Amino acid sequence: MRMTRRLIPARISPRVTLSPDHFEMRTAHPLMIAITVMLISCASAPSSEDRRRLAEGTRWELVRWGDRTVPHGDNGEPVILEFKDGRASGHTGCNRYHTRVTFGPGERQVTVSPGMTTRLACEPRRMEFEASFIRPFEASTGYRVEGERLLFESGGAPPLEFYRRPLERYRER
């Protein structure tokens, strides 16, 4: 006895018809489209809380700011910021710096409060850079985390671009 398989057309939903020779999708259900778009958008964009945690988990070295030359301190220490518990602290090329930073409430929004620095005397070029760096940093209204980079943005000014640096590198000093 010989057995043969025969495919029988099946009706899966009022919108999709399947048969061995024919596949047709007349219209997509609007609810399915909405759910698909929502799932894709949720999966592709980390939340503000995730970005905040990412920014807080490391030290960030200023590597680029428009066409300006980014100096290093007298002892070779770069411009560094570290974020923890709503605060930013670090070295501005001459002095130590501390301020409050709030990530949010909106996505990619940031508020940087007026901060304070130590008052060491450095060469004039470094002090000018420090003052010109602090103003746009404190004026930042937006930020982005792109892989190993953290960018602070304020209006039409060039972004302050920081690069992630391992904490171990600085703890050994």
UniProtKB/TrEMBL annotation:
Gene3D superfamilies: 2.40.128.270
Domain of life: Bacteria
Domain DUF306: 56-154
Coiled coil region boundaries: none
Alphabetical list of InterPro entries matching this protein: DUF306_Meta_HslJ, HslJ-like_sf, Hsp_HslJ-like
Protein name: DUF306 domain-containing protein
